What we know:
The protein is mostly beta strands. The chain contains no helices and 11 strands. The strands form 2 sheets. Strands 2, 4, 5, 6, 9, 10 and 11 form a 7-stranded mixed beta sheet that branches. The chain has a 4-stranded antiparallel beta sheet with strand order 1-3-8-7, with no helix packed on it. Strand 4 and strand 5 form a beta hairpin.
Amino acid sequence: QLQLVESGGGLVQPGGSLRLSCAASGFSLDHYTIGWFRQAPGKEREGVSFISGSGGNTNYADFVKGRFTISRDNAKNTVYLQMNSLKPEDTAVYFCAAGSSTISTMAPGPYFYWGQGTQVTVSS
């Protein structure tokens, strides 16, 4: 079974940091583009970042540039999202998703396999 499992969410104060993990089972993540998405109550799911299946290229939404970093550890078959300088507006359920290695977009549509999400709450 192809499976993605997110972990690392929790409650953090504004300005704090969290590292989210996306662990893959049943496939090698280095053959897929992996994206991070988030969804807050009453809002559409939005793209946060992706890391491509070829060349290790990355991209970030404007609202996280300079604060979030996406990376991967192929030996652990895991993709990470390091989140620094967190703001209350970052509060959401965060999902990872996998799609074709040719994907180069943060739009959710082209991604085929989705995790169940992990809650991130930024509050004082």
